[in-house]
Amino acid sequence: MLNAVRHVGNRLNLIRCLVTAVTLALLLPGCRSIENETLAISAAPAEVSGPAAGAIAGDMVSRLAEQIGQGKATVALNQDGSPFGQALEAALKGWGYAVVTDQKTDSGAPIISLAYVIMPYDGQILARVSTSAVELCRVYTVTTSGATPISALSLMRRG
Asked: Of 50, 57, 149, nearest to 97 (Cα)?
């Protein structure tokens, strides 16, 4: 009888491992880079609330500033008009970046093209912010007051 219980326990562990592997396989491609120099089209679902969008955008922009320098360039934001896109634009401006959404600038300042993807999955949100030089990716859990990071920051440098 004890062997039967151990056998069932081993099956449950195997099933848990398989479920974990499948979940990671579904989440990690969101952090994969794009093979060519073209950035992804920005996309975020409208159902991501304002507080959650603001918390995620604030965290991602602070991490982006660590990589490219705070306020040192004009950011060309490819935005979709979602609450996250608006929160990202506000966070960029809050960190001192000039933001253009029409892809045109008047000055000769360096321009950094930026795109984002927000993917809800099983009560969590995968956020990815991409430039031609760096890509950041992180998983968040949504709370009533915003969002909290639940994974380490994935950072990939290009070039």
From this structure: 57
